[in-house]
Amino acid sequence: MQTSVTFKNLDPSETLKSYVSGKLDRFDKFLDNPAEASVVLSVEKFRHIAEIKISGDRLTINGKEETDDMYSSIDMVLDKLGKQIKKNKQKTRDRRGGKTKLADVMAVEDIVPQQDEAGTTQLKVKNIEYKPMDVEEAVMQMDLGDDNFLVFTNAKTDRVNVLYHRNDGHYGLIQPSN
């Protein structure tokens, strides 16, 4: 994580910089993309104030704490930021998980009759569960099963893909474009 530390009414200290940077590096495992952290450490009379702003991975998180010790201010604001990051990540996981439940809501009946000019045709609706995996893993799943296609979420792009058997014996991959 790229960190910039600013000192106000306080002598710049390399130990405080390394302490904050070390603590902020723990948040890299929660963030998918590189993030930037802006840290402002200040002293006003007897109050030691730590303000941290983390930007990246489509989110911006702010935190501010003040105590009578700079290290405890830093620890407390980092605890706040950790809770906010985890809460935000859980929200995105819940929203992504909601996509699989949408098919259950939409399909009320298994067979929906539709009129055609040549006669009556029937549409069979099949609800499927799909999970995140790589394309290589999806190919192995296809080899294990006897289905003609497999719907999965591509772990690299977080988009729904369809892997299917082609008539020439090879595989085909359908993936949405931007």
TrEMBL record:
Gene3D superfamilies: Ribosome hibernation promotion factor-like, Sigma 54 modulation/S30EA ribosomal protein, C-terminal domain
Keywords: Cytoplasm, Translation regulation
Lineage: Bacteria, Pseudomonadati, Thermodesulfobacteriota, Desulfobacteria, Desulfobacterales
Residues annotated as domain Sigma 54 modulation/S30EA ribosomal protein C-terminal: 124-173
One Gene Ontology term, aspect cellular component: cytosolic small ribosomal subunit
Molecular function per GO: ribosomal small subunit binding
Family: Belongs to the HPF/YfiA ribosome-associated protein family. Long HPF subfamily.
Function: Required for dimerization of active 70S ribosomes into 100S ribosomes in stationary phase; 100S ribosomes are translationally inactive and sometimes present during exponential growth.
Main location: cytoplasm
NCBIfam families named among the record's database cross-references: yfiA
GO annotation (BP), single: negative regulation of translational elongation
Domain of life according to the entry: Bacteria
Subunit (UniProt): Associates exclusively with 100S ribosomes, which are dimers of 70S ribosomes.
Subcellular location field: Cytoplasm
Descriptive protein name: Ribosome hibernation promoting factor
InterPro entries per UniProt: HPF/YfiA_ribosome-assoc (IPR050574), HPF_long/plastid (IPR034694), RHF-like (IPR036567), RHF/RaiA (IPR003489), Ribosom_S30AE_C (IPR032528), Ribosom_S30AE_C_sf (IPR038416)
